[in-house]
């Protein structure tokens, strides 16, 4: 069922834009609701024709008292 979701025009277009950004060498941060259809990672991997994305971090906004931007800086640019 989840694979069917990612084949719908809206979700498929969303993934296509993310895949295009990744191919262009951009980092992507996806802000998603707590509950969303399963299979996002697998659908994106199939669009990119890769097995296992090289770097995939899942952050939950409620896990930390910091804002999303502060969380990203804390994780990826701690000396900034």
Explain briefly what this protein structure is.
With 80 residues, this protein is mainly α. The protein has helices at 2-7, 9-23, 40-48, 68-76.
* Assembly state: single chain
Count of distinct strands: 0
Distance between the termini: 43 Å
| Computed structural class | mainly alpha
Principal-axes shape call: globular
Nearest-integer average pLDDT: 83
Task: Return the string of H and E elements.
Answer: HHHH
Walk me through what this model shows:
- With 80 residues, the protein is an all-alpha fold.
- The protein has one domain (2-76).
- 49% of the residues lie in helices and 0% in strands.
- The protein has helices spanning 2-7, 9-23, 40-48, 68-76.
- Helix 2 packs across helix 3 (40-48).
SSE arrangement:
Blueprint: H1 2-7, H2 9-23, H3 40-48, H4 68-76
Helix pairs in contact: 2-3
Descriptive key words:
single chain, 80 residues, mainly alpha, 49% helix, globular
């Amino acid at each position: 069922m989840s694979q069917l979701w990612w084949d719908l025009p809206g979700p498929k277009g969303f993934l296509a834009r993310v895949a295009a950004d990744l191919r262009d060498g951009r980092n992507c941060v996806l802000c998603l609701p707590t509950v969303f259809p399963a299979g996002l990672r697998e659908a994106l991997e199939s669009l990119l024709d890769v097995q296992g994305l090289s770097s995939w971090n899942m952050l939950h906004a409620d896990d930390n008292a910091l804002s999303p931007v502060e969380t990203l800086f804390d994780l990826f640019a701690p000396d900034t």
